[in-house]
């Protein structure tokens, strides 16, 4: 005998696993068992196969992988004896599911077993087929199952009936084959067969309209009679459950009657008597009886109208609702939801009880009751119901608040009789559960507020009060901040006082205090803070005398690590400080938001930011054009070669929207580190807002599309370009062409100091760098040269990081005039990352008498594969005239 | 329709799982984790239904074991409670006052019994007696096969002595 297979018995393995104190011990035991089972599997051990499979099933239940046992199931099923088959089929159902290919291999064994002479083996096969059959198997084996519906033993017939359910669910086309056999099964007396046949009948009706018609005509009478007999049957101990004869059968009979009676007056008429009998005669003190009554009520609700029965049903539900058993109350709430469409008035009578259920300690009941209340609300009772719900919101469980808030908001939005009520209720909800309110809810609130112009003053004053008490609810803070920003003047001047209001005195600085507190509160997230900044900008215009204080608060966010805040802060600071003439126009009162278009957009994706999108931002609009401009260098170049796709990849990259652009200007302060895709826009935005009033970009839109190919042709067409370009700089690339950049010969570059790079230092020649030392130097390159402007790059590497190149750019101006507002920008393809540090100055003196230096750091993510390349753009003012120079630098040493 | 049956111990250990709707192994363990988290934490007096992913899970606690069945929204919860009780009574009759240990060491028997109660997620027999009789008949088939095998091996053993 195989030494491995003589392992432990099943019982011993279970004991060993249960004796484990830690998960690690358990894993060790399971691993050992699995190893011996695998060994037995590979040895094709017959003696202990069934034991091994039983062990595997236990291991499977513990959650360990057992796929290697799947074939063992098939072998056991194929064995001739009943014990092997029994465990084999059990393993098949446990370890496999219908989506596994292995299952197809069992079809043949199943077919043989369905035709077996031993009825128990037939039963095993039917059970397995019923539980895990796939559509293919269902198709292949349907004829066998159909035949077994007439098998001599009732226990096989009932299994075949349930197996047929699986088959018609998988392959609805096969339904018609089963209709006739089922009709004869419905006449049987055996409860198991009857039970399963009725179930099959119900499922046939669902998949096939014809079957439904057939059963309605032929079987309604019979089924009604069976139910009558079941209800009136004498005590039968075999089927008795707490005094009721076979509730399972009665429930199924009621269910099939519901299907047959639904939408058919004749059939419904036929079953009225028996339904009334069930509804009145069934004992309701035990679960089984209630289960029948519950099913009966549902059937009464679904079949065609019969007034008397409905009253009976609603009364049963009323009894259920006042029952002390939670299960019964739960199903009552469930059923009342269905009853509401049939008899709304009757359900309304139970409103008080239902409202109590919302406050139940059981989460399942609360949830059901809340759904039901939601359906019960209408124009006439919305006010008291909402009040009840909001009152309960105050004391409800944390984990229920989310659901409750959503439902209240939805009720208020759907049914509010007037705007002031809507605003009041929403404020209450926001104060109590602002953190549970979804974004679109408070967005909608803002839309409503903007639309009710007579309530602006009232709303902003209410919000001012609300934020004093509920500053921990983010949604209140947001709405309040927005409204104070928008209607700050109404708040301070008490404009639009309503009679119901108590007057309050708010000074300008009180209003600003609120926003300052909100921006400083540590729980405020990015959106709230960004909204605060926007509100401050608006207030700087509404309260001109507090402008300086606002500017100070705005300035505090300049150093924020969050890009959005930093950007807003810098932009708004510049608007407040420099563009007072522009400011009031920029932050004018928002136009009334269109409710229809807003609600149309709800549910779409663009909802979450809509509150912010609508805020006028004077800078945003001009973003696109400069970006295009920056990338679109080939304005005057000749037509591109048609086959442009042959160009190198990085040029595509360079032009891609996601090009990594960085730039810096001395004025832009601390913000010049940007990576990633969105940086391009941000930088430009930043540049434009911090510098002079932005000049509209001259690049025509049509150029953008051709720029890719233009660029590709750039290298070949340099000379052409020189001739054609009528720019003040006659040949931007001439320097490039003529300059044969010397090969980076290590040690032969005394021009460059490794450490500070400030020009030649002949007295200390650098030590000859070793090959593996990455801290090497390169000869300086002339990166760009036009008429009077030249750009030198000093390149160096830090030891230990070969990917990073440090560049010191040095700009000199050989003309006699001074260049002011000098800004250098650079763009690199995606495989590079560029980091620019602030330039030493933004004024470049003439006659080469001085220079600007600026450090760049380029990280090459494809070091060794691709070499560095860069596009640059230099803008400056010459005699107050905007000048622009652009070029590409591709003469970097190859191994940067 | 019952989508699956779970038996979970008070400690969250799985004692029996039966899936009538297709769930991958990964989904199965996720379902078990989610549901044991939801059900084991519920208080004793609450209702026996939890709503879960658009389905309802009906559960009932017997001593240290939770019997859970997942059904559709429109199914009759009260009836499923009866089905659970029906199954438990049959187990009780079979093992003679069943306890958790019976179901651990004879888990396959619990499955055989369940297969006589449910197929394709539907009830197949409302008579406990019939189920008991069918299971007993199959058990005796197994016993008979075992004895036969033993006697054959005895004969072989004697013959080769």
Q: In order across it, which strands form the biggest sheet of chain B?
A: 2-1-5-4-3
The global form of chain A is: flat
Q: Regions of chain A with pLDDT < 50 over 5+ consecutive residues?
A: 1-6, 603-774
Q: H/E element string of chain B?
A: EEHEEEHHHEEH
Low-confidence stretches of chain B: none
Report how far apart the termini of chain A are: 69 Å
User: What is the radius of gyration of chain A computed over CA atoms, rounded to a whole number of angstroms?
Assistant: 41 Å
How many helical stretches of chain B?
5
- Look at the structure and give the mean pLDDT of chain B: 91
User: What class do helices, strands and sheet pairing of chain A give?
Assistant: alpha+beta
User: Oligomer, anyone?
Assistant: heterodimer
Summarize the structure.
The complex is a heterodimer of chains A (896) and B (161). Chain A has 896 residues and is α+β, with helices and mostly antiparallel strands. Helix content of chain A is 55%, strand content 8%.
Please give a structural write-up:
The complex is a heterodimer of chains A (896) and B (161). The longest helix of chain A is centred in the first third of the chain and has 24 residues, at 209-232. In chain A, strand 1 and strand 2 (244-245) form a beta hairpin. In chain A, the strands form 3 sheets. In chain A, strands 4-5-6-9-8 form a 5-stranded antiparallel beta sheet. Chain A is built from 39 helices and 11 strands. By secondary structure, chain A is an alpha+beta fold. The longest helix of chain B is centred in the C-terminal third of the chain and has 32 residues, at 128-159. A 5-stranded antiparallel beta sheet of chain B has the order 2-1-5-4-3, sandwiched between helices. In chain B, helix 2 packs parallel to helix 5 and helix 4 packs across helix 5 (128-159). Chain B has a single domain, classed as Beta-Lactamase (2-Layer Sandwich), CATH 3.30.450. In chain B, a hairpin with a 2-residue loop joins strand 4 (55-62) and strand 5 (65-71). Helix content of chain B is 52%, strand content 23%. By secondary structure, chain B is an alpha+beta fold. Chain B has helices at 25-40, 77-95, 100-105, 107-117, 128-159; strands spanning 2-9, 14-19, 49-52, 55-62, 65-71, 118-119, 122-123. Chain B has 5 helices and 7 strands; from the N terminus they run E-E-H-E-E-E-H-H-H-E-E-H. At the A-B interface, helix 1, helix 3, helix 5, helix 7 and helix 9 of A face strand 2, strand 3, helix 2, helix 4 and strand 7 of B.
């Amino acid at each position: 005998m195989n030494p491995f297979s003589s392992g432990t018995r099943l019982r011993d393995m279970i004991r060993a696993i249960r004796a484990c104190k830690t998960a690690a011990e358990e894993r060790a035991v399971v691993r050992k068992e699995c190893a011996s089972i695998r060994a037995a599997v590979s040895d094709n051990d017959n003696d202990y196969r069934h034991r091994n499979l039983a062990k595997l099933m236990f291991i499977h239940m513990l959650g360990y992988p057992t796929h290697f046992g799947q074939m063992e199931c098939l072998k056991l099923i194929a064995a001739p004896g009943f014990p092997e088959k029994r465990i084999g089929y059990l393993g098949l159902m446990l370890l496999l599911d219908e989506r596994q290919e292995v299952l197809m291999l069992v079809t043949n064994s199943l077919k043989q077993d369905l035709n077996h002479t031993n009825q128990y083996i037939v039963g095993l096969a039917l059970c397995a087929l019923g539980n895990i059959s796939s559509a293919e198997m269902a198709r292949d084996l349907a004829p066998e199952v159909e035949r077994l519906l007439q098998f001599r033993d009732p226990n096989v017939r009932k299994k075949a009936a349930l197996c047929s359910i699986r088959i018609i669910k998988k392959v609805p086309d096969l339904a018609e084959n089963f209709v006739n056999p089922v009709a004869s099964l419905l006449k049987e007396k055996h409860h198991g067969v009857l039970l399963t046949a009725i179930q099959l009948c119900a499922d046939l009706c669902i998949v096939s309209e014809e079957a439904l018609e057939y059963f309605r005509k032929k079987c309604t009478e019979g089924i009604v009679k069976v139910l009558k007999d079941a209800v009136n049957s004498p005590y039968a101990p075999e089927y008795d459950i707490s005094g009721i004869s076979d509730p399972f059968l009665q429930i199924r009979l009621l269910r099939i009657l519901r299907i047959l009676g639904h939408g058919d007056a004749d059939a419904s008429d036929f079953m009225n008597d028996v339904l009334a009998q069930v509804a009145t005669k069934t004992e309701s003190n035990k679960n089984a009886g209630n289960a029948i009554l519950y099913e009966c009520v549902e059937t009464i609700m679904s079949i065609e109208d019969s007034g008397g029965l409905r009253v009976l049903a609603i009364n049963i539900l009323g009894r259920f609702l006042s029952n002390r058993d939670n299960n019964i109350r739960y199903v009552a709430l469930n059923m009342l939801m269905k009853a509401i469409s049939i008899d709304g008035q009757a359900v309304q009578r139970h409103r008080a009880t239902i409202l109590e259920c919302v406050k139940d300690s059981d989460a399942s009941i609360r949830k059901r009751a809340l759904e039901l209340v939601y359906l019960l609300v209408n124009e006439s009772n919305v006010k008291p119901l909402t009040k009840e719900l909001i009152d309960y919101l105050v004391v409800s469980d944390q984990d229920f608040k989310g659901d409750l808030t959503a439902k209240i908001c939805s009720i208020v939005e759907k049914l509010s009789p007037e705007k002031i009520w809507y605003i009041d209720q929403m404020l209450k909800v926001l104060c109590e559960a602002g953190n549970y309110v979804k974004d679109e809810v408070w967005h909608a609130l803002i839309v409503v507020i903007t639309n009710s112009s007579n309530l602006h003053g009232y709303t902003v004053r209410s919000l001012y009060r609300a934020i004093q008490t509920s500053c921990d609810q983010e949604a209140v803070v947001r709405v309040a901040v927005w409204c104070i920003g928008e209607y700050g003047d109404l708040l301070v001047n008490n404009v639009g006082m309503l009679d119901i209001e108590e007057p309050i005195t708010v000074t300008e600085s009180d209003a600003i205090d609120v926003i300052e507190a909100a921006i400083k509160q540590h729980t405020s997230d990015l959106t709230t803070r960004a909204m605060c900044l926007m509100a401050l900008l608006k207030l700087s215009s509404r309260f001109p005398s507090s402008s300086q204080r606002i500017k100070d608060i705005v300035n505090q966010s300049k150093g924020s690590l969050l890009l959005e805040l930093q950007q807003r802060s810098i932009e708004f600071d510049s608007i407040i400080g420099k563009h007072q003439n522009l400011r009031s126009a920029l932050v004018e009162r928002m136009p009334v938001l269109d409710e229809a278009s807003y609600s149309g957009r709800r549910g779409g994706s663009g909802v979450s930011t809509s509150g912010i999108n609508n805020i006028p931002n004077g800078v945003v609009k001009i973003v696109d054009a400069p970006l295009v401009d920056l990338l679109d260098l080939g304005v005057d170049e000749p037509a591109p070669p048609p086959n442009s796709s042959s160009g190198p990849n990085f040029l595509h990259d360079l032009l891609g929207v996601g090009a990594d652009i960085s730039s810096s200007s001395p004025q832009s302060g601390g913000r010049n580190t940007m990576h990633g895709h969105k940086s391009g826009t941000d930088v430009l935005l930043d540049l434009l807002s911090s510098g002079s009033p932005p000049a509209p970009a001259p690049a025509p839109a049509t150029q953008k599309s051709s720029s890719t190919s233009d660029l590709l042709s750039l290298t070949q067409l340099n000379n052409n370009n020189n001739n054609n370009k009528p720019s003040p700089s006659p040949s931007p690339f001439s320097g490039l062409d003529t300059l044969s950049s010397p090969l980076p010969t290590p040690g032969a570059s005394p021009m460059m100091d490794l450490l500070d790079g400030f020009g030649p230092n002949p007295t200390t020649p650098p030590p000859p760098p070793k090959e593996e030392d990455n801290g090497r130097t390169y000869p300086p390159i002339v990166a760009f040269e036009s008429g009077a402007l030249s750009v030198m790059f000093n390149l160096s590497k830090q030891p230990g990081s070969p990917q990073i190149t440090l560049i010191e750019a040095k700009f000199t101006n050989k003309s006699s005039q001074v260049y002011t507002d000098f800004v250098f920008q650079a763009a690199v393809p995606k495989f590079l990352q560029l980091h620019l540090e602030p330039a030493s100055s933004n004024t470049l003196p003439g006659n080469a008498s001085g220079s600007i230096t600026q450090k760049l750091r380029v990280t090459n993510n494809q070091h060794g594969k691709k070499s560095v390349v860069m596009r640059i753009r230099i803008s400056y003012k010459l005699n107050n005239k905007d000048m622009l120079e652009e070029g590409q630098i591709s003469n970097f040493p190859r191994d940067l | 329709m019952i989508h699956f049956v779970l038996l979970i111990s008070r400690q969250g250990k799985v004692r029996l799982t039966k899936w009538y709707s297709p769930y991958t192994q990964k989904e199965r363990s996720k379902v078990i984790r989610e549901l044991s988290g939801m059900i084991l934490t519920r208080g004793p007096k609450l209702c026996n239904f939890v709503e879960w992913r658009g389905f309802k899970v009906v559960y009932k606690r017997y001593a240290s074991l939770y019997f859970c069945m997942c059904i559709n929204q429109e199914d009759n919860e009260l009836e499923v409670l009866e089905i659970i009780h029906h199954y438990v009574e049959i187990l009780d009759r079979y093992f003679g006052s069943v306890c958790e240990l019976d179901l651990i060491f004879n888990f396959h028997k619990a499955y055989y019994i369940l297969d006589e109660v449910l197929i394709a997620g539907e009830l197949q027999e409302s008579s406990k007696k019939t189920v008991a009789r069918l299971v007993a008949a199959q058990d005796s088939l197994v016993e008979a096969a075992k004895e036969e095998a033993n006697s054959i091996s005895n004969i072989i053993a004697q013959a080769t002595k």
